[in-house]
Every structure is written in C-alpha cells, then in structure tokens.
Amino acid sequence: MPKKPRTFSPQEKAQVAIATLKGEKTIAQIASEYQVHPTQISLWKKQALENISEIFKDNRRKEKQSEFEHQRQLDNLYKVIGQRDIELDWLKKKFSVFDS
After folding, report:
1. Angle, CA 47 vertex, CA 44 and CA 49 arms, to 5°
2. With contact defined as beta carbons under 8 Å apart, do 15 and 30 qualify?
C-alpha cells in the first residue's frame, strides 16, 4: 500500500523557513529535524524570501480604497434605482391614460 504524503500546515512551513533563514543549521540538519525533504525546504525558503515584503504592506490604504470603491458602487446603484423609479412612474402615468 503506497504511503500517503505528509501535509504541513502554514505554521509548520513558516517554522521550517525561519529555521533555514536563521542559518544556524544546515538544510540537511533541518530536513532531519523536521522530517522534510531538503528540496522542499529550499522551496519554502525561496517562497518566504519572495513574499516577506507582503508582511509590511500598508493594508490601511487598501481598506480605505476598498471602502471608497464600495461606497462609489453603492452610490451608482442608488442612482440607477432612482432612474428606474422615475422611468417606471412615467410609464405608469402614460399607460394609465389608456386604462380609463
């Protein structure tokens, strides 16, 4: 029966990547300690280095832009609804002449 591959949580991956970045142990030592293939450790280290700048992004600006965009869409929808109400009232008035 084939062995099922082990899955690692994001916390475990981060722990391994941090241990690698510290440089106190070799990749072979870390691989033995965490029971992870050295190639996988190198991949996680590369991913950590590539994405480390995401930690320091200013999310407040993104939230403000998101709120602004949301409010703009909401205002636009209210405008469309108002326009449809006016058109509907106009049509009701026009066709009420023929109903009587």
Report:
1. 110
2. no
Counting Cα atoms < 13 Å in the Cβ hemisphere of 9 gives 3
Q: How confident is the model at residue 46 (pLDDT cuts 50, 70, 90)?
A: very high
Helix 27-34 and helix 10-22, axial crossing angle in degrees, nearest 10: 150
Is pTM beyond 0.90? Reply is no
Q: What is the pLDDT of residue 82?
A: 95
Both tokens of residue 71? 């409010």
Compute the distance between CA of residue 62 and CA of residue 96 in angstroms, rounded to an integer.
Answer: 50
Token output for 86: 């006016």
**DSSP three-state, residue 12:** helix
pLDDT band at residue 98 under the 50/70/90 scheme: low
- Closest by CA to 35, choosing from 58, 12, 52, 56, is 12
